[in-house]
Amino acid sequence: MEQTSEKSTKRTGLYAILTVLVVCCALAGISYWVCSKAVKAEYHARYAGIMNIAAEKLAKTIHGMEMNAMNEFDEVEKHLDSPEAVITALQSKTSLNPEIRGYFAAFEPDYFPQKGRWFEPYVHHVDSSAFEVRLVGSARHNYFKSPWYIRAKESNKSFWSEPYYYYDGTNISGHYTTFVKPIYDKAGRLICVCGADMTFEWLAKELQRIDASIKSNEMLNSHLFASTNDFFTVVVNKDGSCIAGPEGKKVALTEEHLIRDLENGKSGTVDMTIDDVPSTVFYGPIEYVDWSVAIVVAKEKK
To answer: Which of 50, 142, 226, 301 has the most crowded Cβ, counting Cβ within 10 A?
Structure first.
């Protein structure tokens, strides 16, 4: 009887130890699962928040450029009595908006008979303080066939053009997008199409400035869980192609569901490999334009 009781006691103690071990393992597993979920949630919230901040900063800058451009266009509309008055109007506020590479007014054929079929004065920055005037309309640069001119003529509203490359062999050649506004007379006839050019070189520098300000912001980097993830910001068109970003970085969102999101101005995330680096991309729309901002976050090595 005593041996049976002793064995039973040992067995009970062993069961108790095993039960405690099982419970401890279960608690450890649950704790790991909860912690893992928390880390993932914090990771997603952090970079989705950074993406929204970048989009807001870009939207604010772009909207400011639009407002300055509209002031310039209003001056042109008030001074349509002569070609010289138009050029003076274009020059009037150019120095107030250094982010804009140049302003132009592309007139309908023979609006000023003495200027012939093409009259498109272009006032553009040579550097941060100086600017010059060129007449760029010609048979070689037949702006009547340009997509931005055709769209302006048909839409009767202002807009940002699709990205394009302009080349004339001079220092104004480059990749551009243009804020466009058609101007009409009292009878509703098109007079000219005004435009303000933004270069993608400038946009790339603006993205670098935004990245640097975010990375140096203590409040934005006071997240709960330590992270060594590096990231950079790009702007993508609604077809998924990259408009601007760090030099040498190739980012393209080409999958069908991603392009649908970009076309519809939706936000989302996608895991993909960029330049041989496994990454997560957080993307979302930019107000005022048909583009999206994307934050590319390199995954931590395990």
So the answer is: 50
- The radius of gyration of the chain from alpha carbons, rounded to an integer in Å, stands at 29
Q: Report how far residue 146's alpha carbon sits from residue 142's, in angstroms, rounded to the nearest whole number.
A: 7
Burial of 92 (0-12, 13-18, 19+ CB in 10 A): middle
**Prediction pTM value:** 0.77
Mean pLDDT by 10 residues, the chain (302 residues): 56 61 57 48 78 91 90 93 93 74 94 95 78 89 93 91 81 86 93 93 89 76 56 92 87 90 92 89 91 89 58
Q: Which of 99, 121, 116, 76 is nearest to 197 (CA)?
A: 99
In sequence order, the β-bridge partners of residue 131 are 125
